[in-house]
Amino acid sequence: MNPFGYTRAGDVAEAVRTAASDGAAQFIAGGTNLVDLMKERITAPSRLIDITRLPLRAVESLPDGGLKIGALVSNHDLAYHPEVVARYPLLSQAILAGASPQLRNMASTGGNLLQRTRCYYFYDAALPCNKRAPGSGCPALAGVNRIHAILGASEQCIAVHPSDMCVALAALAATVHVTGPAGSRTIEFAAFHRLPGDTPERDTNLQPGELVTAVELPRQGFAAHASYLKVRDRHSYAFALVSVAAALELEDGKIAEARLALGGVAHKPWRDPTAEDLLRGRSPDDALFARVGEHLVRDARGRGHNDFKIALVRRAVVRALQQAVAGGSQA
Amino acid sequence: MLPVMGDETCAITLKVNGATLRLQVAPWTTLLDLLRERLGLTGTKKGCDHGQCGACTVLVDGVRINSCLSLAVMRDGASVTTVEGLAEGEALHPLQQAFIDHDAFQCGYCTPGQLCSAVGLLAEGHASTDDQIRELMSGNLCRCGAYPNIVAAIGQAMRPRRSA
């Protein structure tokens, strides 16, 4: 690791002020990704602003029926929180599908949103990477790209977002609360992460100095019919090749409301409202689910080694929707 | 704490295996390096140093974490338990005894991390079946492949022992 300064923030205002005064400083909470990136010299902050003593550990029920999750709530505590287990099982399943118990004990809610891609080329400082060194090129395009994006990629970057939790948050239509030098604001989850385009160095739409303070879930939790399906090279402690968050509201045998989000396929959790439109008002059946899977990959493009992900999405979507109807978790 | 610059060290207090220590650490010192290099507690292992193998697992305030990804300065005020702190004098921790009873290791390199992780698993209380033990021990790799015996050992420590 390169040497760096250290500040322990006493309150949110101090944390944001310190970040605003030093553009090369970074916030640190769990550190599970950031410390690793610093060891690999992928990032070299001038200063770490330790936010772990800030009062952002509450999980609060809101008057409108929603749930507000403090940015420092650990992935473990969130996955097993009684309100989350009972009302948002999709979120609990997704969190427990990711990382290891030790990492979930350390990792924070806010940090999970901000983890960086695990693209091998991004992690190898000896090689070009447009995300790490803008303009240097993308070796993944013609290289080993088995884990890479099939949707929403660009000729600059085909990296994928690594989070499981964020796929569930996308399906649940969460909002992100942030505080920055210009004050506080909320960001809809779909607008939080970015597609790579010509600026793959930017993962999110956070502005300089902005700190994630909370994630808010709306009232509708799809508790009866939700499933997170994660397909990976080994059964535990591996990143998704493809994952599907499926949530349904069933009334009188029809789909009254539907949510679908994909992980492992794009630079951000992939939610396509037109696929959800196909489900709404229809009776759940496998033929319909197959059409939805087909629809989701209509613009997909494989890059060679990852071509298999296109067929995998089609089939995983069907299975995730079947599991959601049955109300169960991953078989 | 006042902010420190890139060339300064920070004063922290840590309780390590019951002993309270006042230490000066550089901000980039990991908890793992502090334990091994400064405090001589070499039971905790540096396997991958990237949070992937679990050999560095210790308990911080009773919670299992990867010490290789934890900056010591951020643990100011915490209580750390390493494998050296599990036994009570000559009396082994029930998990240590269970690992011996079930021959739950071969080379032993991953064992300190496996033990601390298993102590954390028991405290968390989310596992009751062998499948759940396997899933919730997935953060600890064993290159010798002692997994079946590790699961059996943790199962013994978790469940009241059947009479012989």
UniProtKB/TrEMBL annotation, chain A:
List the InterPro entries hit by this protein, alphabetically.
Answer: CO_DH_flav_C, CO_DH_flav_C_dom_sf, Diverse_Substr_Oxidored, FAD-bd_PCMH, FAD-bd_PCMH-like_sf, FAD-bd_PCMH_sub1, FAD-bd_PCMH_sub2, Mopterin_DH_FAD-bd
Q: Which segments constitute the FAD-binding PCMH-type domain?
A: 1-222
Q: Which PROSITE patterns match?
A: FAD_PCMH (PS51387)
Regions crossing the membrane: none
Source species, domain of life: Bacteria
Q: Which SMART domains does the annotation name?
A: CO_deh_flav_C
**Which keywords fit this entry according to its UniProt record?**
FAD, Flavoprotein
Tell me what this protein is called: Xanthine dehydrogenase family protein subunit M
